[in-house]
Amino acid sequence: MKIRTLIVDDESLARERLRQLLQPEPEIEIIGECADGRAAVDAIRKHSPDLLFLDVQMPELDGFAVLEAIGTERLPVIVFVTAHDQFALAHLTSMRWITC
Hints:
Elements: E1 3-8, H1 12-22, E2 28-34, H2 37-47, E3 51-55, H3 63-70, E4 77-81, H4 85-94
Parallel strand pairs: 1-2, 1-3, 3-4
Helix pairs in contact: 2-3
């Protein structure tokens, strides 16, 4: 069974690079890409991905707002992607998510 994967990033080059890195992996199926948080919420609700590559900082609805919008019952495995690690760390320490 393939891992249904959704890529969310407002930068088209970042989405392209993630797609290039994931494409050779036979167990990964890229089911879609989103360029903003609102589209991501819709895609997650519609497609129920197993794995989500999620940009932290996006205009309008950032990655953490996406997670709040979908709720914990629909939560896929999440890999945060960001060029700004200070934003990710600041948000993660203030949230009530289990992190490893």
